Amino acid sequence: MIRPLHPQEVPALAEALAHMDPWRRLGFSDDGLAGYLTRDDHALLRMVYEQDGQAVGLLCLRSPWLRGPYVEVLAVVPDKQSQGIGSALLAWAAGQNGGNLWVCVSAFNERARDFYGRNGFVEKAELNDLITPGEDEILMRKKLR
Ligand SMILES: CC(C)(COP(=O)(O)OP(=O)(O)OC[C@H]1O[C@@H](n2cnc3c(N)ncnc32)[C@H](O)[C@@H]1OP(=O)(O)O)[C@@H](O)C(=O)NCCC(=O)NCCS
Predict the structure, then answer these.
(1) How would you write the pLDDT of the chain (145 residues) with one tens digit per residue?
(2) Domains of the chain as residue ranges with CATH
(3) Which of 87, 99, 130, 134 is the most exposed place for a label (fewest CB within 10 A)?
(4) 53-58 — which CB contacts under 8 Å span 24+ positions?
């Protein structure tokens, strides 16, 4: 089931992300991520994938963004990856309004680049030093119509 994030789920999810690449390598902290997941931000949809009562996947979708929404965070906890949960969250994002779906992926994150490519995203631009000096991000676009 895909539903909004509950505030009580934030500390565990923030900690999981801070210990997982790409956020670990890019230097994100538990506290910084927890702040991002709880602050007032009406253009940010924060959704989770629930399995057996647990939030095992997270999607943060900025909408509106650029003629369609922007996937700001997509993560599945390590022991639940490769079961289709990430694809299900992306499909939910694609079902929102707009003709495009966007995401930025770290250049070093080759598995995620493959994952988005297989889900219909095309690499559009390289953004040097966007989050952390020395690390490039790739802006990817999926045309929805
Ligand atoms: C990328 C990610 C969201 C995909 O979700 P998922 O539920 O594992 O994906 P699905 O089961 O729908 O699709 C599986 C594919 O995702 C990719 N994938 C799986 N584990 C991954 C990982 N640790 N890191 C990056 N990509 C991964 C693989 O291409 C995989 O294909 P395979 O099953 O043939 O190996 C998830 O693996 C994840 O959270 N990875 C770490 C965080 C990350 O890189 N997020 C994207 C940042 S832009």
Answers:
(1) 999 999 999 999 999 999 999 999 999 999 999 999 999 999 999 999 999 999 999 999 999 999 999 999 999 999 999 999 999 999 999 999 899 999 999 999 999 999 999 999 999 999 999 999 999 999 999 999 8
(2) 2-143 (3.40.630.30)
(3) 134
(4) 55/5, 55/6, 55/9, 55/12, 55/13, 56/80, 56/85, 57/85, 57/86, 57/88, 57/89, 58/5, 58/13, 58/17, 58/89
pTM of the model: 0.94
Helix (H, G, I), strand (E, B) or coil at 2: strand
Q: How far is the CA of 65 from the centre of ligand 1 (A)?
A: 24
Ligand 1 pocket check for 110: Cβ under 6 Å? no
